[in-house]
Amino acid sequence: MQPEIRQTLKITDTTAAKLEKLHLHSAWDLALHLPLRYEDETQIVPIAAAAVGEICQVEGVVVYQEVQFKPRKQLIARIQDGSGAMLNLRFIHFYPSHQKQLAQGETVRVLGEIKRGYFGDEMIHPKIKSAEKSDLAQSLTPIYPTTNGLNQPTLRKAVQVALNAVDVSEILPDTVLRKLKLPPLAESLRTLHHPPPDLDMKTLANGAFPAWQRLKFDELLAQQLSMRLARQRRRSGHAKSLVGNGFLSEKLLANLPFRLTAAQEKVCAEIRADLAKSVPMHRLLQGDVGSGKTIVAALSALVALENDGVQVAVMAPTEILAEQHFIKFKQWFEPLGISVAWLSGSLKKKEKEQAKAALADGRIRLAVGTHALFQHDVLFDNLALVIVDEQHRFGVAQRLALKNKGEDVHQLMMSATPIPRTLAMSFFADLDVSSIDELPPNRTPIKTKLVNHLRRAEVEGFVLSTCQKGQQAYWVCPLIEESETLQLQTATETWENLQAALPDLKIGLVHGRMKPAEKAAVMAEFVSGSLNVLVATTVIEVGVDVPNASLMVIEHAERMGLAQLHQLRGRVGRGAAASTCVLLFAEPLGQISKARLKVIYEHTDGFEIARQDLEIRGPGEFLGARQSGAPMLRFADLATDVSLLEQARQLAPMLIAEYPDVVEKHLERWLGSKEGFLAA
Ligand code: ADP
Ligand code: MG
């Protein structure tokens, strides 16, 4: 937080540090920091009428107080109100001041959630006030999102001061507000920060309440404006126009064991057309798992490399995937006389220095790696095209690094996860999209089986017979979100059990805790076929391509999300052999798990699965939404506020054309301190 702002707002250093943690840097950030919920301190509920689970305020005389030491040190007090009903108060953390406040005979007002305790109803850590000293509140009390060590009164005061310091005058044109039927900003902010006495909780909790609608609209508008401006900026940038003469790509095509599908041809042409322009390309290549995006990436890279001295970078989100690409690209490109560099976090210092030097002086023209490619100290001689695989897996910070490196370079992003329409309209509004809508021919459809985990022995038998036919199998262990250690333990146990059950097979193990080099070594053994079975945690989820693997067993499939199941299943069915995916599940199954397993059992088309996934989860949860900047939307919800989004989207171009000063002011209010992130 800037010192001047801190001074104007009279905020102490410690408070300022906490506010920074909440990403509150400016007075406007604070003014737009809206309550999460409200507490009702306007009335006193008779203890007898306070129901379990309700948050309410009650008042009574302290009739008992004790510090207990068993089972742990805690302060217990009991209050009684006029009706004779009693309520226990319990504090696990307390200070002498609590004991004083709750001295026998004092009349206190407490607010908290009524819980069912062992000795009757109780409140744990309620808010306490002396009844004599405090009047009842006139209106609901706002409760703000906060962070450890920053209490509500301090935060409330900071918001209050900021609200008085900023200029909340209306900037949106009158005609616009009238048409949208939205209340003025100043009034909306006032209502939400200080609800008038006649407003009740229910009204305020409803997102359709006009004051909320106004704030959501303004937020969406800021997002639309900034996306549009980013697009304009990009379009006015200059990238190198890359026209390939085909001498490399034709050689590669001739060496391939297959011909491109019509869909691959089509997207290649779209990309080629973009690369020929001096406007930087910003294109997303969408295509289901196994649709053959990698060869499209390689051909696009060749278009660029057919131009003298030009460099291309290919980035993947995980070491395993980046390494796979490295191997593929080397195999494809070295026969064409193009050497490929490998850059990842796990490289030895000396190797890294060598790769970096070769990139800096242009000796190496194609680099493959993880986001290590875009660290500050990696310099390119003449970078013209960046290809990003599985782009939705990258975080905001990584994308920002890429962007800083890649001003004025062409960008091709690839993803197997289709973007829902609302996201496409908002966060990805600055992307052109190409889709591969057909799978390569001669794929035998994957057969999916749902099997109760109690029938594990049968599944092991199936693994054996599959491998005896010369094919390979994956065995994927459950995702244990709570504990990485536990996940590791399960994977190791599964590996040991499987080895014991199938002594004739060679079984390898990869998991997230292994060093990248160890992981790569095991993967290489599996790729070469010297391992029959690969036991893996979900690290293999993205991109791994071993066509000879025809069986995928997934344990505890009921715990996994649909996108993940689809990605995992897509690891098989890449070769000519008929492939099977066995989904092991453990009962009892919850509603959502049941619905998901039904979808994955019935469908193989990634777009259809993504559509149904959205129905089950809602787009807020969409894979990648979080990384793609959705936290930037604090109030609007892409699932419920589609019509506001449409309106903001329609309004944005008009404002940019006719009211540039309004645009500037609006963005200053909403993104003043966050601009860098949104453009990423
Ligand atoms: P993804 O789109 O999931 O990244 P990949 O690029 O890994 O898919 O391709 C999956 C598999 O399909 C690879 O083994 C690849 O060599 C193969 N493949 C790609 N295009 C074709 C094609 N036109 N005909 C046959 N096989 C293809
Ligand atoms: Mg891929």
Summarize the helices and strands and which ones pair or pack:
Layout: H1 3-8, H2 13-21, H3 27-31, E1 37-39, E2 55-68, E3 74-80, E4 86-91, H4 96-101, E5 107-113, E6 115-117, E7 120-124, E8 127-130, E9 141-143, H5 152-165, H6 174-180, H7 185-193, H8 201-205, H9 210-236, H10 249-255, H11 262-276, E10 282-287, H12 293-305, E11 311-315, H13 319-333, E12 340-343, H14 349-360, E13 366-369, E14 383-388, H15 396-405, E15 410-415, H16 421-425, E16 432-436, E17 447-452, H17 456-468, E18 472-476, H18 484-501, E19 507-510, H19 516-528, E20 533-536, E21 549-554, H20 562-569, E22 580-585, H21 591-602, H22 606-617, H23 642-658, H24 660-671, H25 675-678
Parallel strand pairs: 4-7, 10-15, 10-16, 11-13, 11-14, 12-13, 14-15, 17-22, 18-20, 18-21, 19-20, 21-22
Antiparallel strand pairs: 1-9, 2-3, 2-5, 3-4, 5-8, 6-7
This protein binds adenosine-5'-diphosphate and magnesium ion.
Magnesium ion (MG) binds near residues 293, 294 and 543.
